[in-house]
Amino acid sequence: MLAIRYATRETRASDLYANHTTYGEPDRDVRMDYYFWLLRGNGRTILVDTGFTPEVGDARGRTTLCALPEALARLSVEPADVGTVIVTHGHYDHTGHVGLFPRAEIVISDRELAFWTGPYARRTQFAHAVEAADIDTLTRLDAAGRVTRIRDRHQAAPGVDLIEVGGHTPGQLIALVDGEDGQVLLASDAVHYYEELDLDRPFAVFANLTGMYRGFDTVRELGGAVVAGHDPAVLTRFTPWDRADPGFAVRVG
């Protein structure tokens, strides 16, 4: 099981945390890394999220380090090898290549897809976080019968359980995965940074603030090795896949 860093950017704490001034501390520089996750074993190849395309990254001021197709090639994974794509939520940095996988079942929260294809998704404070073309692709795949829409809890494969926590988006998912050394919790954007859990500090983008706090509680209760969704510390908490290039990917379970 790998966490693959495909992009990065430099930002400020005041841009990352909701109402940052309420904490009474100075602003600071923060790096935000962008990941997708790859699960292989028992004859299965599962992808958790699909990043953004370089074109979208450029338009949004993000630096693409290794676009998802190139990263998969480096890992000897062909798009046709992927049997399941789990979309943890609909934001642009998780859906950019969702149509790339010709044989994959696409798994997403029913609440999530319903929201992003509904009327409130067009409002600016929601719409800025998605790419319309990605949502159109998900809609087309759904119409073709390739999307599995889930609620609450779902076993995507043996040892891979998805839990709908909401908060950041209406149907934000996390994944509990049986790793070689114990349970791994792929938090995606239920936990962008570890200090969100450590300091009980919500991210700036949310659909439901109470839901985000509840998601923190759920992650704490489930335990295991938590893999945050955007924290550079993921690269130092886990073992590099390639010691000559420790910034590319790490083994998380």
UniProtKB/TrEMBL annotation:
<dbReference type="GO" id="GO:0016787">
    <property type="term" value="F:hydrolase activity"/>
</dbReference>
<dbReference type="InterPro" id="IPR051013">
    <property type="entry name" value="MBL_superfamily_lactonases"/>
</dbReference>
<protein>
    <submittedName>
        <fullName>MBL fold metallo-hydrolase</fullName>
    </submittedName>
</protein>
<dbReference type="GO" id="GO:0046872">
    <property type="term" value="F:metal ion binding"/>
</dbReference>
<keyword id="KW-0862">Zinc</keyword>
<dbReference type="InterPro" id="IPR001279">
    <property type="entry name" value="Metallo-B-lactamas"/>
</dbReference>
<keyword id="KW-0378">Hydrolase</keyword>
<feature type="domain" description="Metallo-beta-lactamase">
    <location>
        <begin position="33"/>
        <end position="230"/>
    </location>
</feature>
<dbReference type="Pfam" id="PF00753">
    <property type="entry name" value="Lactamase_B"/>
</dbReference>
<keyword id="KW-0479">Metal-binding</keyword>
<dbReference type="InterPro" id="IPR036866">
    <property type="entry name" value="RibonucZ/Hydroxyglut_hydro"/>
</dbReference>
<comment type="similarity">
    <text>Belongs to the metallo-beta-lactamase superfamily.</text>
</comment>
